[in-house]
Amino acid sequence: YYITNNLRMKGFLLLIAVLLQGEALQVGQKVKFRSVNYPNHFISRLSNERVAISSSAADKEWIVRNGLAGKGYSFESQSGGFLRHRNYQVWVDPYSNTDLYKKDSSFTIEGGLA
Predict the structure, then answer these.
(1) Which pLDDT score is estimated for 51?
(2) pLDDT, position 24
(3) DSSP 3-state of 15
(4) Which of 109, 108, 87, 77 is nearest to 8 (CA)?
(5) Vertex 76, ends 73 and 80: CA angle to 5°?
(6) Residue 54 has pLDDT above 60, yes or no
(7) Of the candidates 71, 70, 60, 66, which has an alpha carbon nearest to the alpha carbon of residue 30?
(8) In the β-sheet with 30-31, what is the strand arrangement from edge to edge?
(9) pTM
(10) What is the pLDDT of residues 67-92, one digit of tens each?
(11) Rounded to an integer, what distance in angstroms lies between the CA atom of residue 81 and that of residue 74?
C-alpha cells in the first residue's frame, strides 16, 4: 500500500482530511489514522522513512503540531521527523528550517471532501 503516485497521494491527503473533519485537534495530542477499508491498518512510518498503510509497523502514532507553514497542522512522528509530501510521495523526514519543507509538512482541513 505504498503511496507512490499522484492519485494515491491525493487519496492519502483525502483520507487525512476526512478523518480530521469535525474533530477538535489539540496541539500535542497523539492521533492515529486508521483505514476504513482495513480496520487493523494505520498510516505508519516504516524504517526506511517511507509511509505506508500497514498493520505491522510499530510507529503509527502522530503528534499534532501547529502547522510548520504558519497554518493548519503538522504531524510529527514519535521517533522524530514530520509527515510530508515529497515528489508525489509521503515521507517522514527530519525537520528542516526551509520554506519548502514547512509547506510540504503542513495540512489544512477543508469541508466538502466527503
Answers:
(1) 79
(2) 67
(3) helix
(4) 87
(5) 160
(6) yes
(7) 60
(8) 30-31, 62-66, 73-77, 82-86, 89-93
(9) 0.75
(10) 999 988 899 998 889 999 888 788 88
(11) 10
The grid cell for 85 is: 509530501
Contact call for residues 63 and 57 (beta carbons, < 8 A): no
Cα gap 63→74, rounded to integer Å: 8
Among 48, 42, 47, 46, which Cα is nearest to 30's?
42
Grid coordinates belonging to 36 = 476504513
Q: Rounded to 5 degrees, what angle do the CA atoms 51, 32, 111 make?
A: 95
CB 3 within 8 A of CB 89: yes
Amino acid at 77: S
Contact indicator for 75, 84 with CB cutoff of 8 Å: no
Q: How far apart are the two ends of the chain, measured CA to CA in Å?
A: 22
Cα 16 to Cα 99: distance, rounded to the nearest angstrom: 22
At 75, list the grid cell.
504531524
Here the cell at position 29 is 495530542
